[in-house]
Design brief:
heterodimer, A: alpha/beta, Rossmann fold, six-stranded mixed sheet, four-stranded antiparallel sheet, 12 helices, 10 strands, 38% helix, globular, B: alpha+beta, ten-stranded mixed sheet, elongated
C-alpha cells in the first residue's frame, strides 16, 4: 500500500487575459511509508505547485492523487485539511516560526488542530518533542532569540509533533550554514527513521538531495527519476547554491584565486591607497 | 468532541493573537471601548431620562389609567355635597379604591420671615399612591389621618426650609390662616388652625415657593369653619382663609377598563346629578397618547448610539483588514499544519470578537461608573428624579451584545480575506 501516489498529474493555471499555462505535466510519483525521496529543480520548474499537490493544498487539473490508496479528490476540503494536519509535516526553508510566540507555543500550534488527548495534553507533548530535538532548555525562548539552527530545530519539532507519516521538506537547509544544515538533516532523518515517516525533500542542494534513497528532477513541469540529483544551474542564485563545497586541500590550493568578495576588497578605496603607497615606496 | 476542541482551540488561538499583538489590539480597541461606553451611557441615560419623564408625567397626570371627572351645569352650580355623594356612590358601585378629590386652594401660613399664601392641594388619602408622591422625610397620609382633629400636612422642602427643617419626630406644627405670630413658624394664632407636618416632599431646583398637601376632609372643615365664622361671601374673598375650593375628581383604574368606565361613569354621574348636567370624563396620564409616548426619545437615543458604534466599528474593520494582510504568512503556516478554512475563518472572527468583548466589557464598566456618578445624576436629574433607577441592565446587555456584534462584523471581512490565502505562496514568498 502506497502512502502517496501521483498518477499522470497535470496542473494548469489560466492567468488573466492569457492562454492556459501548464505548470506540471504527467507527473508520476509514488511515496511508500518510510520512503526518502528528493526532488531537485530549477526556479520556475513547478516545485511550489508540486509541493501544493503533495501537501494536499491543491488538486490536480487532471490525473489522480491518492493518499493511503484513496483518491484525494473524493475528500472534502475540510477532510483534506484535517488529513494534512494529522499525517503531513512541513519543514520550510525560512523556518516560518510564529513571531511573538515561544518555542513551546510554536510547537504546540499544530496540536491546536488535533482533538482528544493530543489536544488536551498539547503542552506536554510539545515539551517532549522539544526535548527530543535538544531544545528542552529553550522552550520559553522567542524565535528571535534563537540561532538559525535552533529555529529550524523548533520548526522540525513543530512539523513532527503530530507524528506525521509524511514529512515534506521545502529547502530545509536553504537558510542554514553547511554544518548546521547537515546536523538539521541528520535530525530529520533520525526522527523520520524512528517514527517510520516518509520524507519528500525539495531542494537545490545536491548534497541534501543525495541523502535520499530515490531522486527526481523536476524540469519545466516534468518529473523524471534520476540517479544523480545534481543538475546544471541556470540562475545566479542556483549557481551560488549549487557550487560544490571545496575541500580543505582545494581551499588551500585556491587561496590565491580571488573571489568576488576578494575583488571588492582589492578595489576598495583603502586597498587602492595602500597599493599606491607600496608602489611609491 | 471535535467541535468542542475546535471551539476551544479557536478561542485559544484568538486569545494568543490578541496577547501577542496587544499594542495593536489595544489601539484598535480604544475606539470600540469608547464607542461601547458611549452606546451604553446613551442607552442608560436614555432609560433614566425616560424614567424621569415617566415619573414626572405620573406625578402630574397620574398613573395609567387615571380618569379625570368633572361635572357642571350651564345655568346652575352643583352643590359640592351633591357631587361628593354622587362620586362616593360611583366609587362604591364599581369598587374603585384608588380615587381622590383634588382641590387647589391657598392658605395663609406664618413663617419667621412673614406670613405667606401657600399653594395647597387638598386631596384624599389614595392620591399619594396614585401620583407617586415621593417624600424626603416622614410619610404620606395614613387612612386614619382623616380622623384626626388637627389637620395633617405634607409640605415641600422650601416650606420645611423656611421652618428651619425641624425634625418630624417632634411633630412640628404650623398655624393655618393665622396672622400675627411674629418670629415663629409654629404656634397657635388667634382664629387659626393648628396643623401637624407629617411629611416633606422634595423640591425641584426651580421651586422657590412653599407648597403643601392637605387631606380634602380637613380642607372642607377649615372652609366650613371659615364660612361659619364670617359668612360665605367673606370666606370666598378672605385673603387668609382662601376662596371656595373647586374640586376635581380622579380615579386610578386598570387601563383595559378605562374606556368602559369612562362611559359608565359619565352615564351614572349624569343620572345622579340630574337633567342639564354635563359630565366630562377624560384621561390625562402619559399612556393615553398611544402605545409608547417615549418612542421618539428612544429612537433618537438608539439612532445616536448606533451611529457612535458604527464609527467605532469602521475603525476596527480598517485596522483588522490591514492586519490580516500582514498576517498572510502566518495564516498560510496554520493552514499547512491542518487548520481548515472554516477554522481560519472562525479564528480570525474570534480574534475580533474576543477583543471587542473585552473592550465592550471595559466600555460598559466605564459607562456604569459614568452614569452612576453623583455629578452625572445631578446633571441629568435636575432635581426632578428623587429616586434614580439603578443602572439599566438592558443598557449593559445592549453594550455587550453590540460589542460582540461589532466584533463579528468587523471580523467578517478579514476572515473572508484570510480563507482566500494561497497557502504555499503565502509561506514561500
Amino acid at each position: 500500500m502506497s502512502l502517496l501516489r501521483l498518477e499522470d498529474v497535470t496542473r494548469t493555471v489560466i492567468p488573466p487575459d492569457q492562454p492556459a499555462l501548464t505548470i506540471l505535466s504527467g507527473v508520476n510519483l509514488t511515496v511508500e511509508p518510510g520512503d526518502h525521496v528528493s526532488i531537485v529543480g530549477r526556479s520556475g520548474s513547478g516545485k511550489s505547485t508540486l509541493l501544493n499537490l503533495l501537501g494536499l493544498l491543491d488538486l490536480p487539473t487532471s490525473g489522480m492523487i491518492t493518499f493511503d490508496d484513496r483518491p484525494v479528490k473524493s475528500f472534502s476540503a475540510a477532510r483534506r485539511d484535517r488529513l494534512r494536519g494529522s499525517s503531513i509535516g512541513f519543514v520550510f526553508q525560512q523556518f516560518n516560526l510564529l513571531g511573538g510566540r515561544t518555542a513551546l507555543e510554536n510547537v504546540t500550534m499544530p496540536l491546536l488542530y488535533s482533538s482528544g488527548r493530543t489536544f488536551w495534553q498539547r503542552k506536554k507533548i510539545a515539551a517532549e518533542m522539544l526535548e527530543m530535538v535538544g531544545l528542552g532548555h529553550r522552550m520559553n525562548s522567542m524565535p528571535d532569540r534563537l540561532s538559525g539552527g535552533e529555529q529550524q530545530r523548533v520548526a522540525i519539532a513543530r512539523s513532527l509533533v503530530r507524528g506525521p507519516r509524511l514529512i515534506l521538506a521545502d529547502e530545509p537547509t536553504g537558510a542554514l550554514d553547511l554544518d548546521t544544515g547537515q546536523s538539521v538533516m541528520e535530525l530529520i532523518d533520525e526522527v523520520a527513521a524512528r517514527t517510520g515517516a516518509a520524507q519528500v525533500v525539495i531542494t537545490h542542494d545536491p548534497m541534501i538531495a543525495r541523502r535520499a534513497r530515490r531522486h527526481f528532477r523536476l524540469d519545466r513541469g516534468i518529473l523524471t527519476p534520476v540517479d544523480d540529483p545534481a543538475f546544471e544551474p541556470s540562475t545566479r542564485r542556483e549557481m551560488r547554491e549549487m557550487a560544490p563545497v571545496p575541500s580543505a586541500e582545494e581551499e588551500a590550493s585556491d587561496a590565491d584565486v580571488v573571489d568576488e568578495e576578494g575583488l571588492r576588497e582589492l578595489f576598495s578605496p583603502e586597498a587602492t591607497d595602500a597599493s599606491n603607497e607600496r608602489t611609491q615606496a | 468532541m471535535r467541535a468542542l476542541t475546535s471551539f476551544v482551540g479557536a478561542l485559544l488561538e484568538a486569545w494568543q493573537e490578541v496577547r501577542v499583538h496587544r499594542t495593536r489590539v489595544l489601539l484598535s480597541l480604544i475606539g470600540v471601548a469608547v464607542a461601547v461606553c458611549s452606546l451604553t451611557t446613551v442607552v442608560a441615560l436614555g432609560a433614566i431620562v425616560q424614567q424621569a419623564n415617566q415619573e414626572l408625567s405620573e406625578r402630574q397626570g397620574g398613573r395609567p389609567a387615571t380618569l379625570y371627572v368633572s361635572a357642571f351645569r350651564l345655568n346652575d352650580t352643583i352643590a359640592p355635597e351633591q357631587m361628593d355623594a354622587a362620586w362616593a356612590e360611583i366609587l362604591e358601585r364599581y369598587d374603585i379604591s384608588y380615587a381622590s378629590r383634588v382641590q387647589g386652594t391657598t392658605l395663609l401660613v406664618p413663617f419667621p420671615t412673614g406670613a405667606v399664601q401657600v399653594g395647597t392641594q387638598a386631596v384624599d388619602q389614595p392620591f399619594g399612591e396614585m401620583h407617586r408622591v415621593r417624600l424626603v422625610e416622614g410619610s404620606w397620609f395614613s387612612p386614619t389621618d382623616e380622623e384626626q382633629l388637627a389637620p395633617r400636612l405634607i409640605v415641600n422642602e422650601v416650606f420645611w426650609d423656611r421652618m428651619g427643617r425641624p425634625p418630624l419626630e417632634t411633630h412640628p406644627v404650623v398655624a393655618l390662616g393665622g396672622q400675627g405670630v411674629p418670629g415663629a413658624a409654629s404656634g397657635i394664632p388667634a382664629g387659626g388652625t393648628l396643623a401637624v407636618i407629617v411629611g416633606v416632599t422634595p423640591a425641584s431646583t426651580w421651586e422657590t415657593e412653599p407648597t403643601m398637601f392637605m387631606l380634602a376632609r380637613h380642607a372642607d372643615a377649615i372652609q366650613k369653619a371659615t364660612t361659619g365664622e364670617r359668612g360665605s361671601v367673606a370666606a370666598a374673598s378672605d385673603p387668609y382663609g382662601g376662596g371656595a375650593p373647586q374640586s376635581q375628581y380622579e380615579m386610578w383604574v386598570p387601563p383595559e377598563l378605562a374606556d368602559a368606565l369612562t362611559t359608565a361613569v359619565t352615564r351614572d354621574l349624569k343620572g345622579a346629578l340630574g337633567e342639564g348636567t354635563e359630565v366630562n370624563v377624560s384621561r390625562q396620564d402619559w399612556a393615553q397618547y398611544g402605545d409608547d409616548p417615549f418612542l421618539v426619545t428612544k429612537l433618537v437615543v438608539i439612532g445616536i448610539a448606533v451611529l457612535v458604534l458604527m464609527l467605532g466599528a469602521l475603525g476596527l474593520v480598517n485596522i483588522a483588514l490591514v492586519t490580516v494582510k500582514q498576517r498572510v504568512r502566518e495564516i498560510g503556516i496554520r493552514r499547512s499544519f491542518g487548520a481548515t478554512a472554516s477554522r481560519v475563518f472562525f479564528a480570525v472572527m474570534m480574534e475580533s470578537v474576543v477583543a471587542t468583548v473585552v473592550a465592550g466589557a471595559l466600555g460598559v464598566i466605564a459607562a456604569i461608573l459614568l452614569v452612576q456618578s453623583p455629578a452625572t445624576r445631578d446633571l441629568v436629574g435636575q432635581g426632578m428624579v428623587s429616586d434614580f433607577p439603578p443602572f439599566p441592565v438592558d443598557a449593559a446587555v445592549t453594550g455587550l451584545v453590540a460589542a460582540t456584534a461589532v466584533g463579528a462584523l468587523a471580523g467578517l471581512l478579514p476572515a473572508l480575506v484570510a480563507v482566500r490565502v494561497k497557502v504555499i505562496d503565502a509561506i514561500r514568498y
